[in-house]
Amino acid sequence: MTVDRYAHAAPGWATGAARVYGPLAAQLVAAAPHPLAGRRVLDAGAGTGLASTALRAAGARPVAIDYSPAMLAWDAAHRPPSAAGALEALPLRDDGVDDAVAAFVLNHVDDPTAALRELARVTRPGGAVLATSPAAGTTHRSVRDRIDAVVADAGFTPPDWYAHLTTVQAPLLGDVTAMRDAVDAAGLADVVVTERVADVGVERAEDLVDYRLGQAHVAAWLAALPEGERAELRRASVAAVAPVMAPYRPPVITLVARVP
Ligand SMILES: C[S@@+](CC[C@H](N)C(=O)[O-])C[C@H]1O[C@@H](n2cnc3c(N)ncnc32)[C@H](O)[C@@H]1O
Protein backbone atom coordinates (compact mmCIF):
# COMPACT_ATOMS: atom_id res chain seq x y z
CA MET A 1 0.00 0.00 0.00
CA THR A 2 1.82 3.11 -1.16
CA VAL A 3 -0.82 5.84 -0.79
CA ASP A 4 -2.30 6.65 2.62
CA ARG A 5 -5.94 7.05 1.66
CA TYR A 6 -6.75 8.13 5.20
CA ALA A 7 -4.03 10.77 5.70
CA HIS A 8 -6.62 13.57 6.13
CA ALA A 9 -9.53 11.50 7.39
CA ALA A 10 -9.09 11.16 11.15
CA PRO A 11 -11.12 14.17 12.42
CA GLY A 12 -14.04 13.52 10.09
CA TRP A 13 -13.95 9.81 10.79
CA ALA A 14 -13.90 10.18 14.55
CA THR A 15 -16.57 12.89 14.73
CA GLY A 16 -18.76 12.04 11.72
CA ALA A 17 -18.30 8.63 10.11
CA ALA A 18 -18.20 7.15 13.61
CA ARG A 19 -21.98 7.69 13.85
CA VAL A 20 -22.31 4.67 11.58
CA TYR A 21 -19.03 2.82 12.10
CA GLY A 22 -19.09 3.07 15.90
CA PRO A 23 -22.29 1.01 16.30
CA LEU A 24 -21.09 -1.38 13.59
CA ALA A 25 -17.79 -1.93 15.44
CA ALA A 26 -19.66 -2.60 18.69
CA GLN A 27 -21.95 -5.09 16.90
CA LEU A 28 -18.95 -6.91 15.42
CA VAL A 29 -17.19 -7.24 18.77
CA ALA A 30 -20.45 -8.46 20.32
CA ALA A 31 -20.50 -11.29 17.75
CA ALA A 32 -17.38 -12.89 19.25
CA PRO A 33 -17.87 -16.63 19.82
CA HIS A 34 -16.30 -16.50 23.29
CA PRO A 35 -15.82 -13.87 26.00
CA LEU A 36 -12.99 -11.50 25.12
CA ALA A 37 -12.21 -10.30 28.65
CA GLY A 38 -8.51 -10.44 29.40
CA ARG A 39 -7.56 -11.47 25.87
CA ARG A 40 -5.05 -9.72 23.62
CA VAL A 41 -7.06 -8.82 20.50
CA LEU A 42 -5.73 -7.33 17.28
CA ASP A 43 -7.74 -4.42 15.91
CA ALA A 44 -6.57 -4.61 12.28
CA GLY A 45 -7.20 -1.48 10.21
CA ALA A 46 -8.06 0.18 13.49
CA GLY A 47 -8.52 3.68 12.09
CA THR A 48 -9.44 6.05 14.91
CA GLY A 49 -10.08 3.14 17.27
CA LEU A 50 -13.80 2.42 17.15
CA ALA A 51 -13.38 -1.36 17.45
CA SER A 52 -10.62 -0.87 20.04
CA THR A 53 -13.13 1.05 22.17
CA ALA A 54 -15.66 -1.77 21.86
CA LEU A 55 -12.96 -4.33 22.67
CA ARG A 56 -11.94 -2.45 25.79
CA ALA A 57 -15.59 -2.24 26.85
CA ALA A 58 -15.66 -6.05 26.56
CA GLY A 59 -12.62 -6.26 28.86
CA ALA A 60 -10.16 -7.18 26.11
CA ARG A 61 -6.65 -5.79 25.68
CA PRO A 62 -6.59 -4.48 22.11
CA VAL A 63 -3.54 -3.77 20.00
CA ALA A 64 -4.20 -1.51 17.03
CA ILE A 65 -2.57 -1.76 13.60
CA ASP A 66 -3.30 0.45 10.62
CA TYR A 67 -1.29 1.58 7.64
CA SER A 68 -2.28 5.20 8.30
CA PRO A 69 -0.17 6.85 11.01
CA ALA A 70 -2.60 9.79 10.90
CA MET A 71 -5.54 7.56 11.85
CA LEU A 72 -3.54 5.93 14.66
CA ALA A 73 -2.49 9.38 15.92
CA TRP A 74 -6.10 10.37 16.60
CA ASP A 75 -6.58 10.58 20.38
CA ALA A 76 -3.42 8.46 20.72
CA ALA A 77 -3.00 9.28 24.42
CA HIS A 78 -6.21 7.41 25.22
CA ARG A 79 -5.74 4.58 22.76
CA PRO A 80 -4.28 1.09 23.21
CA PRO A 81 -0.78 0.25 21.96
CA SER A 82 -0.55 0.67 18.21
CA ALA A 83 1.77 0.16 15.27
CA ALA A 84 1.70 1.31 11.68
CA GLY A 85 1.54 -1.68 9.39
CA ALA A 86 -0.31 -3.27 6.52
CA LEU A 87 -2.79 -6.09 6.62
CA GLU A 88 -0.77 -7.78 3.89
CA ALA A 89 2.27 -8.14 6.21
CA LEU A 90 1.24 -7.56 9.80
CA PRO A 91 4.08 -6.55 12.13
CA LEU A 92 3.24 -9.33 14.61
CA ARG A 93 4.79 -12.72 15.26
CA ASP A 94 2.96 -15.98 14.55
CA ASP A 95 0.26 -16.66 17.19
CA GLY A 96 0.98 -13.24 18.68
CA VAL A 97 -2.62 -12.38 19.62
CA ASP A 98 -5.54 -14.33 21.06
CA ASP A 99 -8.13 -13.04 18.59
CA ALA A 100 -8.33 -10.65 15.63
CA VAL A 101 -10.93 -8.09 14.56
CA ALA A 102 -10.95 -6.46 11.11
CA ALA A 103 -13.77 -3.92 10.82
CA PHE A 104 -14.28 -2.64 7.27
CA VAL A 105 -10.67 -3.08 6.21
CA LEU A 106 -10.63 -6.38 4.28
CA ASN A 107 -12.62 -4.54 1.63
CA HIS A 108 -9.61 -2.24 1.12
CA VAL A 109 -7.22 -4.90 -0.17
CA ASP A 110 -6.73 -6.51 -3.58
CA ASP A 111 -6.31 -10.02 -2.16
CA PRO A 112 -8.66 -10.57 0.81
CA THR A 113 -7.73 -14.26 1.08
CA ALA A 114 -4.08 -13.34 1.62
CA ALA A 115 -5.14 -10.78 4.24
CA LEU A 116 -7.31 -13.38 6.01
CA ARG A 117 -4.35 -15.80 6.01
CA GLU A 118 -2.27 -13.07 7.59
CA LEU A 119 -4.92 -12.53 10.31
CA ALA A 120 -4.89 -16.32 10.90
CA ARG A 121 -1.08 -16.40 11.07
CA VAL A 122 -0.92 -13.86 13.91
CA THR A 123 -3.87 -15.36 15.85
CA ARG A 124 -3.40 -18.32 18.18
CA PRO A 125 -5.10 -21.63 17.31
CA GLY A 126 -8.64 -21.52 18.66
CA GLY A 127 -8.74 -17.73 18.51
CA ALA A 128 -11.53 -15.87 16.76
CA VAL A 129 -11.29 -13.91 13.55
CA LEU A 130 -14.10 -11.36 13.27
CA ALA A 131 -14.59 -9.15 10.23
CA THR A 132 -17.08 -6.92 8.46
CA SER A 133 -17.31 -5.62 4.92
CA PRO A 134 -20.00 -3.61 3.14
CA ALA A 135 -22.59 -5.73 1.32
CA ALA A 136 -23.27 -4.92 -2.29
CA GLY A 137 -26.93 -3.90 -1.75
CA THR A 138 -27.82 -0.47 -3.03
CA THR A 139 -31.23 0.39 -1.55
CA HIS A 140 -29.70 2.26 1.41
CA ARG A 141 -27.76 4.48 -0.97
CA SER A 142 -30.53 6.56 -2.53
CA VAL A 143 -30.63 9.02 0.37
CA ARG A 144 -26.86 9.03 0.73
CA ASP A 145 -26.54 9.73 -3.02
CA ARG A 146 -28.25 13.07 -2.44
CA ILE A 147 -25.30 14.14 -0.30
CA ASP A 148 -22.87 12.97 -2.96
CA ALA A 149 -24.80 15.01 -5.55
CA VAL A 150 -24.50 18.19 -3.45
CA VAL A 151 -20.77 17.61 -3.03
CA ALA A 152 -20.33 16.89 -6.75
CA ASP A 153 -22.20 20.10 -7.63
CA ALA A 154 -19.72 21.96 -5.42
CA GLY A 155 -16.86 20.65 -7.57
CA PHE A 156 -15.75 17.45 -5.81
CA THR A 157 -14.38 14.61 -7.93
CA PRO A 158 -13.63 11.37 -6.06
CA PRO A 159 -9.98 10.27 -6.04
CA ASP A 160 -9.02 7.31 -8.24
CA TRP A 161 -8.52 5.06 -5.20
CA TYR A 162 -12.17 5.49 -4.25
CA ALA A 163 -13.31 4.14 -7.62
CA HIS A 164 -10.91 1.20 -7.17
CA LEU A 165 -12.25 0.62 -3.65
CA THR A 166 -15.92 0.67 -4.63
CA THR A 167 -15.75 -1.10 -8.00
CA VAL A 168 -12.87 -3.57 -7.56
CA GLN A 169 -11.93 -4.18 -3.92
CA ALA A 170 -15.23 -4.05 -1.99
CA PRO A 171 -17.05 -6.41 -4.41
CA LEU A 172 -14.42 -9.10 -3.64
CA LEU A 173 -16.25 -9.57 -0.31
CA GLY A 174 -19.57 -7.98 -1.25
CA ASP A 175 -21.83 -10.96 -0.61
CA VAL A 176 -21.99 -14.03 1.60
CA THR A 177 -20.65 -16.38 -1.08
CA ALA A 178 -17.68 -14.18 -1.88
CA MET A 179 -16.73 -13.80 1.79
CA ARG A 180 -17.24 -17.50 2.42
CA ASP A 181 -15.01 -18.46 -0.53
CA ALA A 182 -12.24 -16.13 0.62
CA VAL A 183 -12.41 -17.42 4.19
CA ASP A 184 -12.45 -21.08 3.11
CA ALA A 185 -9.43 -20.46 0.88
CA ALA A 186 -7.64 -18.92 3.87
CA GLY A 187 -8.21 -22.13 5.86
CA LEU A 188 -10.30 -20.77 8.74
CA ALA A 189 -12.65 -23.07 10.69
CA ASP A 190 -16.13 -22.83 12.26
CA VAL A 191 -16.99 -20.22 9.66
CA VAL A 192 -20.24 -18.26 9.95
CA VAL A 193 -20.88 -15.57 7.35
CA THR A 194 -24.07 -13.52 7.47
CA GLU A 195 -25.57 -10.60 5.61
CA ARG A 196 -27.86 -8.28 7.50
CA VAL A 197 -29.22 -4.79 7.36
CA ALA A 198 -27.67 -3.05 10.35
CA ASP A 199 -29.53 -0.74 12.68
CA VAL A 200 -26.99 1.94 13.56
CA GLY A 201 -29.38 4.44 15.11
CA VAL A 202 -28.84 7.11 12.44
CA GLU A 203 -32.26 8.68 11.93
CA ARG A 204 -31.57 12.40 11.53
CA ALA A 205 -30.44 14.03 8.30
CA GLU A 206 -27.68 15.85 10.20
CA ASP A 207 -26.20 12.58 11.41
CA LEU A 208 -26.30 10.98 7.96
CA VAL A 209 -24.59 14.05 6.49
CA ASP A 210 -21.88 14.07 9.17
CA TYR A 211 -21.28 10.36 8.53
CA ARG A 212 -21.00 10.81 4.77
CA LEU A 213 -18.91 13.99 4.90
CA GLY A 214 -16.66 12.29 7.47
CA GLN A 215 -15.53 9.59 5.08
CA ALA A 216 -11.99 9.42 3.76
CA HIS A 217 -12.56 9.94 0.03
CA VAL A 218 -13.83 13.49 0.58
CA ALA A 219 -11.63 14.43 3.55
CA ALA A 220 -8.73 16.18 1.80
CA TRP A 221 -11.05 18.16 -0.45
CA LEU A 222 -13.26 19.26 2.44
CA ALA A 223 -10.26 20.22 4.56
CA ALA A 224 -9.06 22.56 1.80
CA LEU A 225 -12.40 24.44 1.64
CA PRO A 226 -12.79 27.74 3.52
CA GLU A 227 -14.77 27.21 6.74
CA GLY A 228 -17.80 29.15 5.43
CA GLU A 229 -18.04 27.02 2.29
CA ARG A 230 -17.75 23.85 4.33
CA ALA A 231 -20.59 24.96 6.60
CA GLU A 232 -22.72 25.90 3.58
CA LEU A 233 -22.07 22.50 1.99
CA ARG A 234 -23.23 20.77 5.15
CA ARG A 235 -26.37 22.95 5.28
CA ALA A 236 -27.16 22.20 1.63
CA SER A 237 -26.59 18.47 2.20
CA VAL A 238 -28.95 18.41 5.17
CA ALA A 239 -31.57 20.30 3.15
CA ALA A 240 -31.24 17.77 0.30
CA VAL A 241 -31.62 14.78 2.60
CA ALA A 242 -34.19 15.94 5.15
CA PRO A 243 -37.33 15.54 2.96
CA VAL A 244 -36.59 11.85 2.29
CA MET A 245 -34.69 10.89 5.42
CA ALA A 246 -35.39 7.42 6.78
CA PRO A 247 -33.36 5.40 9.31
CA TYR A 248 -30.03 4.62 7.65
CA ARG A 249 -29.56 0.86 7.59
CA PRO A 250 -26.47 -0.24 5.67
CA PRO A 251 -26.23 -3.87 4.56
CA VAL A 252 -23.20 -5.55 6.14
CA ILE A 253 -21.38 -8.85 5.66
CA THR A 254 -20.13 -10.24 8.99
CA LEU A 255 -17.60 -13.03 9.43
CA VAL A 256 -17.15 -15.03 12.62
CA ALA A 257 -14.54 -17.81 12.40
CA ARG A 258 -11.82 -19.60 14.35
CA VAL A 259 -8.20 -20.31 13.64
CA PRO A 260 -7.85 -24.12 13.45
C1 LIG B 1 -13.08 2.09 6.58
S1 LIG B 1 -11.77 2.45 7.70
C2 LIG B 1 -12.25 1.46 9.11
C3 LIG B 1 -11.60 1.92 10.38
C4 LIG B 1 -12.06 1.18 11.63
N1 LIG B 1 -11.78 -0.24 11.55
C5 LIG B 1 -13.53 1.41 11.88
O1 LIG B 1 -14.32 0.46 11.77
O2 LIG B 1 -13.88 2.57 12.16
C6 LIG B 1 -10.45 1.50 7.02
C7 LIG B 1 -9.15 1.63 7.80
O3 LIG B 1 -8.26 0.62 7.33
C8 LIG B 1 -7.00 1.17 7.07
N2 LIG B 1 -6.43 0.37 6.00
C9 LIG B 1 -6.82 0.32 4.71
N3 LIG B 1 -6.11 -0.58 4.03
C10 LIG B 1 -5.23 -1.12 4.90
C11 LIG B 1 -4.22 -2.11 4.81
N4 LIG B 1 -3.97 -2.71 3.65
N5 LIG B 1 -3.50 -2.40 5.91
C12 LIG B 1 -3.76 -1.78 7.09
N6 LIG B 1 -4.71 -0.83 7.25
C13 LIG B 1 -5.43 -0.51 6.16
C14 LIG B 1 -7.25 2.62 6.72
O4 LIG B 1 -6.11 3.43 6.99
C15 LIG B 1 -8.43 2.96 7.62
O5 LIG B 1 -8.00 3.45 8.86
Automatic annotation (TrEMBL):
<protein>
    <submittedName>
        <fullName>Methyltransferase domain-containing protein</fullName>
    </submittedName>
</protein>
<dbReference type="InterPro" id="IPR013216">
    <property type="entry name" value="Methyltransf_11"/>
</dbReference>
<dbReference type="Pfam" id="PF08241">
    <property type="entry name" value="Methyltransf_11"/>
</dbReference>
<dbReference type="GO" id="GO:0008168">
    <property type="term" value="F:methyltransferase activity"/>
</dbReference>
<keyword id="KW-0808">Transferase</keyword>
<dbReference type="GO" id="GO:0032259">
    <property type="term" value="P:methylation"/>
</dbReference>
<feature type="domain" description="Methyltransferase type 11">
    <location>
        <begin position="42"/>
        <end position="130"/>
    </location>
</feature>
<dbReference type="InterPro" id="IPR029063">
    <property type="entry name" value="SAM-dependent_MTases_sf"/>
</dbReference>
<keyword id="KW-0489">Methyltransferase</keyword>
